[in-house]
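## Example record

The block below lists the input lines for one assembly entry, exactly as stored, with component labels intact.
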Amino acid sequence: MELAIFLIFAVLAVLSAVVVIAHRNPVFSVLSLVVTLFSLAVLFVLAGSPLLAALQVLVYTGAILVLFLFVIMLLNVGREAASPGHVVQKWVAIAGSVLLAAAVVLLYVSTHIAAHAVPLSKQFVDLVPLARELFTTDLLPFEIVGLLLLAAVVAATVLARRPSPEEESEESR
Amino acid sequence: MSFEFWATLIKMVVWLAVLLNVTPIMVWVERRGSALIQDRPGPNRVGPLGLFQALADALKFIFKEDVIPTQVDRSLYLLAPLLALIPALTTYVVIPFGPQVMLHGHSVDLVVTTADTGVLLLLALASLGVYSLVMAGYSANNKYSLLGAVRASSQMISYELALTLSVVAVLMPVHSFRLDRVVEYQHQGAWLGFLPHWNVFPQIIGFVVFLVAAFAETNRLPFDLPEAESELVAGYHVEYSSMKFALFFMGEYMSMAGLSALLVTLFLGGWSFPGIAFTGVWWWVAIKGLAILVAKMAVILGLFVWVRWTFPRFRFDQLLRLGWKLLLPLAILNLVLVAAMTLGGWL
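Predicted structure tokens for the full assembly:
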């Protein structure tokens, strides 16, 4: 049963991930990404971390990807024309993929990750211990990340905001 | 099959029976309610008080011609109405309808799952609801549909934050993410000796924020901008007909029911009621709990109808301003107040 669910969602995750980069219509790409991330959430549940699954769905599929979709629809990005692309670009991409695949295989073979795999401790799986960890031991980095994100939001707002007519005339003066 | 399996299955059947009956009953309430408010008779010919009108409506939906326009994006167009039901049909799993009961020597929680991530799971599933609207609006290849979908997504993102923050405030004094614990917390004791120990009293700000955000999340008037008839014909479902349209319709009513159940559970004591003891044989406890929960949900659903036929629609900029500049700060204020009261030992 568990194996069947794993296989279904693992295949689904990989296939939809391929669609994300292969499809010419950006809306379909985003929707495939939703399927990928949702399948990953199911795999997290199978791996024994329902918390991570819930957060994944809540943050990625529920918020970030909705925003992606919103922007794509608002800008009305159409079907991307099949561009011939540069020849050099193609060869570099192929070489890069081969190198990346080689690196992954090498890493797997050299460290025997599978043999050394340790199940995650309770501390990172359950809600209460994770929260305690975040708000005691790792409080400072946690707060710093929060502050950084806030600064990024403020900066993005300032950059995106069009100055009102009065301000514009003031600037030109 | 094990005892737990059958117990879970029966609990799911009970919830599904409640949710599937919400749509026909609400259609009747909505039509008769709007007639009452507008001082006209309303549908009163089919059956006593027009009660079978919903049946007639359902038959009409089934026998209508199912048109698929030629310009639509077929796969997304067909998938969207199905997705409309998934969040509506899954969120009930964490909402309890009774205390723990003893049955043949097993203790059974009257909630489908007591997962530690209870509320998180519910919010995660509910946040997927926007995809069906977006897919419907985009696939139809129609400017009104697309505008409706764009409005729906921005509206849902804006109000989800305030909604979630008001939920967080409820969880703080309870010290748990589990909704059955939230109800137990409200079941015992009393505020000032006479008020029920419901979260609505100390967290009235959170309650109002949740209620307003719930109207926006379900696209109900006064926030039904995604389907504003006077501007967008019917918004994201303008190209749908027959049962496909009916699925959107059902999805909307069922997510209203789901959010009402969540509101009742978080702020209004859930299945509990002061003065009613939950002891005795298990089925009597379950029936009492479910009846009280459904009665409270009915009050909130009635409020949805009342508001729909009383208030005019907001403008879109007003809607977004309300969400970001009023509800969100209020939700944060509520969060800080509740945190202070929890630390002070008053909650």
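The domain at 1-82 of chain A is CATH 1.20.120.1200 (Four Helix Bundle (Hemerythrin (Met), subunit A)). The CA atoms of residues 123 and 131 of chain A lie 9 Å apart.
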